[in-house]
Amino acid sequence: MAANPAGAASPAAVFDSPFRISARTDYAIRALTEMAASSDGPLVAQRISHAQAIPLAYLLHILTDLRRAGILRSHRGTVAGYELARPATSITLAEVIAVIERDLSKPTLEEISYPGAAAPLRDVWLAVRSSTSTILRSVTLADVAQGTLPPTVQALAVQPHPPPTEKASPLAQ
Question: Is residue 13 part of a domain?
């Protein structure tokens, strides 16, 4: 068996890698969750920034995108700030991610194909995307803000992460 090239991750390391989301998406969901948890009416950006430790300038750009997408409303005047445009129970994490991660220049999985023996790999990536999407469509801002995640999400979150088998990671030597 061949050894891993210098710097290459072993299949075991890839399997155990954390799920990655962009800071922009993380900040957007945290900011919206802060609004969903508040009963104080519109929140000013400075309060959200402080409560969630999000850089204010970056947060303002995110809030603008969310307002343009119709997820937020902004108010000026004596009751200035931002608030959800719809009930938190009707805004899913998938919807927020779709607004924030709107890079249309990336090829979709449907546009990708692999030659030869790797051809079925595309279907694996489609299945991973489908599973992730199902979870993100099932969780609302209200679920996160109230700490009442759907039972299926709770079960997956506490499920032990099985170590890869030797068969699954022949290059991990």
Answer: no
Mean pLDDT by 10 residues, the chain (173 residues): 43 52 94 95 96 97 97 92 97 95 67 87 86 93 96 88 54 44
Report the b/e string of 97-130 with b at 16+ CB within 10 A: bebbeeeeeeeeeeeeeeeeeeeeeeeeeeeeee
Q: For residue range 122-131, what is the model confidence (pLDDT) as tens digits? A: 888 888 888 8
Domain that includes residue 63, residue range: 21-158
Question: Taking phi first (over 0 means left), then psi (-120 to 50 degrees means alpha), and beta for anything else, what does residue 40 get?
Answer: alpha
Residue 164 lies in a domain: no
Q: How many domains does the chain have?
A: 1
172 within domain boundaries: no
The pTM score is 0.77
